[in-house]
Specification:
With 403 residues, the chain is of the alpha/beta class. It folds into two domains: 123 residues, Rossmann fold; 250 residues, P-loop containing nucleotide triphosphate hydrolases (Rossmann fold, 3-Layer(aba) Sandwich), CATH 3.40.50. Helices cover 38% and strands 17% of the residues. It has 16 helices and 13 strands. It has an eight-stranded mixed beta sheet, sandwiched between helices. The chain has a five-stranded parallel beta sheet with strand order 2-1-3-4-5, sandwiched between helices. Strand 4, helix 4 and strand 5 form a beta-alpha-beta unit. Helix 11 packs parallel to helix 12.
Amino acid sequence: MDVAPSLPPARLTLTAATATVMVFVRDHDSEGVIRQCLIDIGVTAPEFKTGGVNEAITELATRPSPRLLIVDVHGVDDPVARIHDLANVCDPTTGVIVIGESNDIRLYRELKSEGVVEYYFTPLVRTLVMQSCNAIVLGVGSKLPTARTGKLIFVVGVRGGVGTTTIAVAAAWHLAEDNKRRVCLIDLDMQFGDAALQLNVAPSHALREALDHPDRVDELFLDRGMARASERLGVIAALEPLDEATMPSEAGVMPLLERLLQRNRYVFVDIPMTSAPRLMPMLHLPGTILLISIGSLVCARDVARLREKLGPNSAERTTVHVLNKSGSNDGLPDADFIRAIGTPPDVIMPYSREIAVASRLGVQGLRTCAPLQRALAPVYRQLSGEEPAAAKKWSLSSLFGKS
């Protein structure tokens, strides 16, 4: 096993049929980092398999070897011996990257002596993994692509009516209009979503088309299918018939995200709770997850369940729990809520009648709602690293065409 011969440093369009990249990995966090690395270097159709080095040996014994192979050795008693067995079924030109749990220099040297290109212990660091993948796929010594992908922000409400879309709309508008960044907001609730309504744009069938036929998503499709809330803020939302099943799948959403991350500095994905379990591997992609709840007992239960499923924060992925409507009559006292979930929320947004009224008006209500802006300020800082602009600087002239 060795690094593949040098190739011209160019972004590639690769297909699963050529078996160019195969990944055998067990945990969602590592899978998410690797997926993003491959997106960044232009690999569009890698093959991901759930498993590790043993499954890779079985698979490659009966099929051609890929150019790049990433294998997981978590839980393997003798990883060096299994990598030696892998070499016996692998083409010598295949570049192999091994990931594991042990930060052991002796293991690293032994694996390198077996011919692996690189060994990384978890949690993975995206830039390091991307450099190794780039060297194998695009050619030895080639520079990293200059194109950068945007930041992915998932907004997930543990229940309906907790303010998920309002927070997504407010944050997307702020980053687009106050921070002057290109932003896209996708509303995956295709039958009951109201992101388009809050931003005063018309939903369309483009989202359904993109999810059902991901191969049709190109630059022209996005230009035509994306509604414009402002010059910098695009919206992709639908309002499908109630009698049609429209549950989004990871296979449909991922190609759309890949395209949008290449065009925008921030991509928001508003995910209804009913879809979140089906999209759990996607939620482990590098980025930020805004987990929205109110202070009810059932929300406490579901926040704890989701946080357990999402796992701890890493260098590449952060979950931010936003407790909305704190102090309202329909919620537990904050102290009781925190005891129920086991950890304090990252952001607490107090309940106020003024915020409740503003949230009903969509983005139009945000420009005059100072309490809402103060409450969302920690969210803005988390996403952008900057202090939020003052509420008085909000302008909806571009949204409504007023001077």
